[in-house]
Amino acid sequence: MATIKSFEEILAWQKARILANKIYILINDGSFKTDFKLRDQINSASGSVMDNIAEGFERDGKREFIQFLSIAKGSAGEVRSQLCRAVDRHHISEVVFNELTEEAIVISKLISKFMSYLNESNFKGTKYVSEPDEKYQTNISKNDSEI
Length: 147
Prior knowledge:
The protein is mostly helical. The chain has five helices and no strands.
């Protein structure tokens, strides 16, 4: 697997971003926009999927990243549950429900596969990489200390 240099390169994050945008458009239309609690919950949960992938990646440690991926996967499940309530309350059609639910399932599977890969990897994370053996400059002149 190629080295990932930023969370934006992670396919699950990319798909979560698309899902969050679709949800945002959806909740600002029709009867959904007046169901304030559900609207806010599904908006928060859909954003949480991508946000937790990003935050976990930026922590620079494998175990922390896996923990945040687990939270992101849970948020994807939360979105699916909230989509059930949305279709039950007639805020969305069965077609939209099925499309968005399938997208959330795909994201969950991608996250699961990524977590499995990380669990099998020997790499601990960039924060565990040793500092270079070079000595840091310790001879500070009087003029340098005034900066």
